[in-house]
Write a structure and sequence with these properties.
18 strands, elongated, Alpha-1-antitrypsin, domain 1, Antithrombin, Chain I, domain 2, alpha+beta, 22% helix, 6-stranded mixed beta sheet, 7-stranded antiparallel beta sheet, 396 residues
Length: 396
Amino acid sequence: MRNPTVRAVNRLTKRWAAAQPPAGDTGTVFTAAGVWPLLALLADGAGGPARAELAEALGMSAEAAAGAARELLTALSGVRGLQAATGLWAKGDLLLEEAWSAELPAGARGTLTGDAEADHRALDVWASERTGGEIGSMPVVLEEETRLVLASALALRLKWIQPFWEMPGEAHEGPWSDRILPVLRRSTSLLDRVRVAHGPTGPVTLLEVVGATGVDVHLMLGEADAPAGEVIATGIDAVTRALPATGASLLPDGNPGPGLFVEMMATLSPEPRLDIETVAFEVRAQHDLLAHAPLFGLETASDADYGHFPGIASEPLAIGSAAQSALARFSAEGFEAAAVTDFAVAAAGGAPPRLRYRTRRAEVYFHRPFGFLAVHRTSRLVLAAGWVSEPGTVAG
């Protein structure tokens, strides 16, 4: 993936995070990687102030946007575990400009019949098929004036390289402390899987959970009163290396970051150890992009009194609706179930085992609301971002 495009998409992710209202009862999830290519294709066909506003939102000139969108979608399709698709549906009598339609990436092409119910069924089937059934309907609003629908779909599935094990547990702090939670636990000798970055609202603890297909998930815990958008923005800066973050191997003893505890201790093994506790979660969200029209460069483009897309068609066109449905789910799944039994056997009546080593021990707990990012490892492109206000439920 080209670095300027990755930076432009991540820029939109940060701006969207900052514009998010306080997370709801369960949290939120959003993917600028699904919005940015569509904005780029619209910018390619826009004129006047709408073109300039879209270019500003994209962080890239309108002239370069369509090519960058095609390259981005092609690159996304090459990421293992990630499916990316686009689709366009137009009224049969809408004559698209050949120069614009020729720049569209490969994808579904369809006709809007004018029968809103039948058209919505067709669009819903496309959305469901492209996301493996996770998003069962397209959030588009079809009205009598609707002339064209442009859509994208992203579906990401990954397995952890090192799985968690799950059991009921309790939180140590925060709004979840009086409940039984689906706690996920695991340990590693790689202390620097957890790091601390310092943003505008204080320290943020980041945990990198490594996926098996080149995409990793980063969990982010800020101070208890830090706004969700600021924690996510600090996390994006840290994972994209725009902001330094210090690994646990170099952090001082004590409580150097939210939810993080570090100490030197006598042990039987010379290896350091990081103990991790987080929670399983599932977050769904619906976003009306026109509610933040300036953020997405759609303020002028959504003014239906005028046409804004002479490069798409000769008839006047304006944005009637813009929306996104999104889902994120974090669990200990993706590994085969197994049982491990061990016995600690020592001779009775002898001396206790000698603790020969002093090693670093770190513990990190995500026991209250936190943020998350799904990041393509090599390009550092943020594929999805969100906030967990409510953990999952304990099975059984």
